């Protein structure tokens, strides 16, 4: 009997990743290719189809493809589109599922990367069996996927769970989109750097981080400095965890998740980010939530989360 | 043929309201009785059952009762309980549905008042057919009910949608529960009063409101003053609408509702609260939400929202 598999596709500004995944999250080949280099959108889709067909042909297993899931920034789940992507040269509205269906005869679904991560957590990761949870992806920005009643929340026009844009301080840091105080200016890889630079400005403390330019500084340097006892690095993580912990306590009043899962570059800093986040989340949680909200590392942390998350869309659809 | 009806019960600290309601929201008799006066919890339940049986007997229509919905503060939907209610003399955990099922052989469901209001809006009100919306009840405090994917969000332990407790300023006003900065300290009937007192403290402007004690001041006085051009009253509404509009813009990044519905005493102030709230909500909404979120008065505004909302639980259960 053939093995049912889903195709997972992650469209990034530079690279597109493709993989073949079964219901258990096992990967039957994966690869990547440049997204935009010298091709228009339809040529890109042709290459995408060619790429996963090759993966399937190369596999020694007897695979039956049941569908395709695509993760991409600015994706609209309802319309199957990527709309006005900031990180792609193709402008306007890209009809991804419609165009793919011309080239592929199984169902195709698309959502943004953070939503895909949440569905991945539910299908393959640590949220199996959970009805209510939130995944927070901590990369350059802060992305999120919210699951309630066992279903991802897309909202009225597929723009729910943009928690990186929740305003935590109306007089705070510039956040892009001509706004101030969005959470991701405080909590993300970039947010951590901005916290370092705030502390370098605010305090007189000596720190190895005083030798780095903003552009040269990155998370691993800050973690290494923290491990060596650098006071600014340690305080920057404490501050980042405080902002995140307070935010998670606030989010709890909205959907009361059983757990928050952290994923992405900043989450890999381990105790440096988890410990202060947990401390402040617990401090700010209202009494009736105490011990009823977990903070956990994503089960997708060291896996190919982007491909897995996208492929999970297929299994989630078959479930409902 | 007999007409299917649901019993709606709203348990308040002083009065318990009971009504018989059909799927269209038509009421076939309603009444109220003192909740706690001289009775223990089981005597209260006996009286409740006696009361709705009398209502049914008195009705000239041929009614078939299909279930009962109960709205109450501190209700736990999953366990069918009222837990540690602050406004009732009966302490601990009250097993409402279990005890009612001993006295009544149709399904009984319980939820808190604001959640009941949201389900009422969906079944009888202006949210019919909407999959994603939020009801905000503006009374002494701020209550809320969040519907996503066509279902109310209860969360992991039935404590979702406590948006009155979302912190908007960690150094802000005391909010109860030994916390600072909860939204309801700024947006509610009490919040409006607190905004008046902030402005009376902050400014030198003359105002008729300088003649009222905090305890004597209430919403109608403030509205009347605003209508007569009182600068403090007008500014207090503006400020209240600013806090609410900013909060609604923030909530949109969470679940992207199609509409927010306002209900309760403060919502009855009409343009005084709706206009500034809409202005600031639109100002703070991110560009991709523009014109995709409505601010509307609840369709239950001048009806017996508490009874209707509770009865709607029954129809909502039959739907799923």
SSE topology sketch:
The structure is a homodimer of 320-residue chains.
Chain A: E1 3-11, E2 15-22, E3 27-34, H1 41-58, E4 63-71, E5 75-76, E6 81-83, E7 93-94, H2 96-101, E8 108-111, H3 113-123, E9 133-138, E10 142-148, E11 151-152, E12 174-176, E13 179-180, H4 189-202, H5 219-227, H6 231-255, E14 259-263, H7 271-284, E15 294-297, H8 305-319
Parallel strand pairs in A: 1-4, 4-8, 9-14, 14-15
Antiparallel strand pairs in A: 1-2, 2-3, 5-6, 6-7, 9-10, 10-11, 12-13
Biggest interface between protein chains, with counts per chain? A-B, 40 and 40 residues
Q: What kind of oligomer do you see?
A: homodimer
Given the C-alpha coordinates, what overall shape of chain A results? globular
Radius of gyration of chain A: 20 Å
Which structural class do the helices and strands of chain A define? alpha/beta
Mean pLDDT of chain A: 96
Cα-to-Cα separation, first versus last residue of chain A = 24 Å
Strands side by side in the biggest sheet of chain A: 3-2-1-4-8
Would you report the number of β strands of chain A? 15
| Series of secondary-structure elements of chain A, N-terminal to C-terminal | EEEHEEEEHEHEEEEEHHHEHEH
Q: How many DSSP H or I helices of chain A?
A: 8
* Low-confidence regions of chain A: none
Largest beta-sheet characterization of chain A: 5 strands, mixed
Could you describe the 3D structure shown?
- The structure is a homodimer of 320-residue chains.
- Chain A is of the alpha/beta class and 320 residues long.
- Chain A has helices at residues 41-58, 96-101, 113-123, 189-202, 219-227, 231-255, 271-284, 305-319; strands at 3-11, 15-22, 27-34, 63-71, 75-76, 81-83, 93-94, 108-111, 133-138, 142-148, 151-152, 174-176, 179-180, 259-263, 294-297.
- The interface between A and B is large, with 40 and 40 residues.
């Amino acid at each position: 009997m053939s093995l049912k598999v889903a195709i997972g596709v992650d469209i990034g500004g530079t690279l597109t990743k493709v993989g073949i995944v079964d219901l258990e999250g096992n990967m039957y080949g994966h690869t990547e290719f440049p997204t935009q280099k010298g091709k228009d959108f339809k040529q890109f889709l042709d290459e995408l189809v060619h790429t996963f067909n090759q993966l399937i042909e190369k596999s020694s297993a007897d695979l039956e493809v049941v569908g395709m899931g695509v993760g991409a920034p600015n994706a609209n789940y309802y319309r199957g589109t990527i709309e006005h992507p900031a990180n792609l040269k193709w402008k306007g509205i890209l009809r991804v599922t419609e165009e793919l269906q011309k080239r592929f005869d199984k169902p195709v679904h698309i959502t943004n990367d953070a939503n895909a991560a949440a569905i991945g957590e539910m299908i393959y990761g640590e949220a199996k069996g959970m009805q209510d949870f939130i995944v927070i992806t901590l990369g350059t920005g802060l992305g999120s996927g919210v699951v309630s009643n066992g279903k991802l929340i897309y909202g009225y026009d597929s723009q729910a769970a943009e928690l990186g844009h929740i305003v935590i301080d109306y007089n705070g840091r510039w956040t892009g989109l001509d706004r101030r105080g969005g959470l991701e200016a405080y909590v993300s890889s970039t947010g951590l750097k901005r916290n370092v630079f705030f502390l370098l400005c605010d305090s007189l403390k000596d720190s190895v981080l005083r030798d780095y330019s903003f552009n040269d500084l990155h998370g691993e340097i800050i973690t290494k400095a923290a491990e060596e006892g650098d006071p600014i690095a340690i305080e920057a993580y404490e501050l980042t965890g405080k902002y995140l912990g307070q935010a998670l306590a606030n989010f709890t009043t909205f959907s009361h998740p059983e757990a928050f899962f952290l994923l992405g570059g900043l989450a890999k800093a381990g105790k440096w980010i988890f410990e202060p986040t947990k401390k402040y989340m617990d401090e700010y949680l209202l009494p009736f939530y105490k011990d009823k909200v977990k903070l956990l590392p994503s089960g997708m942390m060291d896996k190919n989360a982007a491909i897995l998350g996208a492929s999970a869309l297929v299994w989630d659809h078959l479930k409902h």
